[in-house]
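Appendix B. Raw example, untouched.
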Amino acid sequence: MIGKFMHVLVTGANGFIGTHIVRSLLNGSMVFARVIAADRAPPIHTISDSRFDLRTGDIADADFVRSLFTDDIELVFHLAGLVSGAAEAYFDAGFATNLNGTRLVFEACRSLGTVPRI
């Protein structure tokens, strides 16, 4: 990977694991991180780096998910989801995010054809 950026898409970047993955990716000099994050939690908004591209939207919105997948995406960390308590309390939102959102991410990866790993 010498001499080029790796274009990475991270969903769920505002979560505990997502925030740490984004920060770890940006600590490496060879990574451009394109990040999708729900516009709720402040930690991810504090990142100021020219390699960081924050997109806000709903992971269960098919058009939004498709818009994230450009030809340069090489790796996807799919971390978007509602944890068990929230998913149980708000079943419809949990279903839309955890099941449908995951399906949309996988379909977009398959359609793009250039993402070897999720």
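End of appendix B.
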